[in-house]
Amino acid sequence: MANWIMVVDDDTANLKMAGHILSRNNMRVTALKSGQALLDYIPEKGFPDLILLDIKMPGLDGFETLKRLREYEKKVNADNTPVIFLTADEDTSTETRGFEMGVSDFVRKPFNPDVLMRRIDNVMSSRSEMRSLKSEASIDKLTGFLNKGASETRLTKICTESTGCLMMIDLDSFKPVNDIYGHDMGDKVLYGFARIVKNAVPEGSTCGRLGGDEFVAFAKGVLNDSTVAEITEKLNKEVVAMAKDLMGEDMDIPLGASIGAIYVPRHGNDYNTLIKQADKSLYTVKKNGKHGYSLYCAEAFDEDDDEQMPDVRSISGILGERTIPDVALQLDKDSFAPVYRYIIRYIIRNRVSACKVLFTLTQAEGTTAERYTDLLDEFGNHIRQSLRKSDILMRNRRNQYFVFLTDIREDSTERVIHHIVDTWEERYGKELVVAHEKEFLGNEYEKKYNKKKDRHVIIVDDDAMNLLVAGKILSAGGIRVTALKSGQALLNYIEEGGQ
User: Fold this and answer.
1) 251 vs 238: CA distance, rounded Å
2) Whose CB has fewer CB within 10 Å in the chain, the N or C terminal residue?
3) Contact 354/406 with Cβ under 8 angstroms?
């Protein structure tokens, strides 16, 4: 298949010349006249094998175009597309800046055909070698899934950024296949089972093989028990049918699938902790007959572990995050409520400030329903990435996100909100209509909840200096003070209805 090259240059003559050179060398060419045209084209048509990108263009220059391209690639979990800068600039600082941004090479204008093709061949050869090495290091050769190490790396990132269900999957009773039918047949069964797993989870999910008959999957967006049950039923039904196709209708090995599952981020974002909890759930299925699923429930597993009395350190290890990502904490409604109540108590007790923000999203004219759904999900990720690790949020409704900004000054709240909206619109334009309302929590909030009456203290002492010192201390604490110099004066004050 011919390599696909995109050429981006505002000069039509340069586009024609580059297109002619590349076409003569059996390359597929797409010519675009601006950086924005490139950024609009790729989401619709896909990534090319290489981009020739002019630096000096009106609107978005080459540097800004490359920056936005890398942001989009990161968002969709795509590899970096090789980029060669086209320039007539002889300044070495331009090259330095380009290489710092990750550009693969430079080609001077006007083009020398031999130099242009040699640079392209070098970059494409390097990319092919890197892809081969990366694939060998991360892909399980039998199934095409991520291997154990790559699964941990990829799923660690996914669990901090996405919502869904992490699943430990065992192919039950697989050993007899190898024992009775041989390892070649065993490999065919493992390959077939991997295809079944891939087709059973939603599009955009991630699958890995941990070794032997153990698999892992992150089912993207799956947050309800009925969907987990459907996936389990599909695996168990289709694995038997697949095995009989391979080994004959008389195959009587009780093959099936057991799943230990845990919702993310309901039970946290740390992959290493989550996979251990999913493994506990898997064990529950195994000891109760296999061929089913179990969803992690902290309370249920706590009861099983009663004989092991934990200490402070072990409890902290279970509750805490191994690594705290530099993003806001997103929780579901059930988990959010107690955290919200605690923060309110903390604000009242310590007289710190915070701000509640509710973002409501509506579909803009021209945005398709499918695109709208994708953008609603992505907006939550955008909020998480935009805020501090001390902030929290939840998805209140399909099109609403409730955000709690902790320890923030009132004059900073609008700046934070505008940053979220502005950076969103820079990346996605006006495809969503973003509205917000906020409530700032300051000293007035503390007074509202404490509802304490005006405090009044009467001091009785015959020493004027003691009265003076005590009065100043109490007054500084917002307490109304009455100073009296004798016991009789106190009695008289009370009889007269002193207030």
Assistant:
1) 14
2) N
3) yes
- Is the pTM for the entire model greater than 0.70? no
Q: What are phi and psi of 35, to 5 degrees?
A: -65, -40
Is domain 4-138 annotated with CATH 3.40.50.1860? Answer: no
DSSP 436: E
The reported pLDDT for the residue numbered 131 is: 66
**CATH 3.30.70.270 residue spans of the chain:** 148-319, 329-448
Q: Quote the pLDDT of residue 74.
A: 86
In tens, the pLDDT along 400-440 reads 999 999 989 888 999 999 999 999 999 888 899 999 999 99
**How far is residue 64's CA from residue 98's CA, in Å, rounded to a whole number?**
11
Distance CA 249, CA 241 (A): 9
Q: Tell me the average pLDDT of the chain.
A: 87
**Of the CATH numbers 3.30.70.270, 3.20.20.80, 1.20.1050.40, 3.40.50.720, which one belongs to the domain with range 329-448?**
3.30.70.270
Residue spans of alpha helices (H) in 387-442: 410-428
- Within 201-270, where are the H helices? 225-247
Q: Supply the DSSP string of 123-189, one letter for each residue.
A: HHHHHHHHHHHHHHHHB-TTT-SB-HHHHHHHHHHHHHH--EEEEEEEEET-HHHHHHH-HHHHHHH
Rounded to the nearest 10 degrees, what angle do helices 443-450 and 333-350 cross at?
90
Characterize the bridge pairing of strands 354-363 and 400-406: antiparallel
Reported in sequence order, the residue ranges of 381-498 that DSSP labels E, i.e. its strands, are: 392-397, 400-406, 432-441, 456-460, 480-484
Answer yes or no: are the C-beta atoms of 201 and 309 closer than 8 Å.
no
Dihedral pair phi/psi, residue 403, rounded to 5°: -120, 140
**In contact, 7 and 29? CB cutoff 8 Å:** yes
Place of tokens 């130099």: 115
| Burial degree of 13 (CB within 10 A; 0-12, 13-18, 19+) | exposed
Nearest-angstrom CA–CA distance, 28 and 6 = 8
Give the number of residues written for the chain.
499
In terms of C-beta density within 10 A (0-12 exposed, 13-18 middle, 19 or more buried), how is residue 172 classed? buried
CATH 3.40.50.2300 domain extents, the chain: 4-138
**What's the CATH fold of domain 148-319?**
Alpha-Beta Plaits (3.30.70)
State how far the alpha carbon of 326 is from the alpha carbons of 334, 365, 387, 427, 435, in Å.
23, 35, 8, 21, 26
Instruction: Please state, in angstroms and rounded to a whole number, the distance separating the CA atoms of residues 357 and 238.
Output: 47
How far, CA to CA in Å, does 176 sit from each of 63, 282, 286? Answer: 59, 21, 17
- The helix/strand count (H/E) of the chain reads as 18, 17
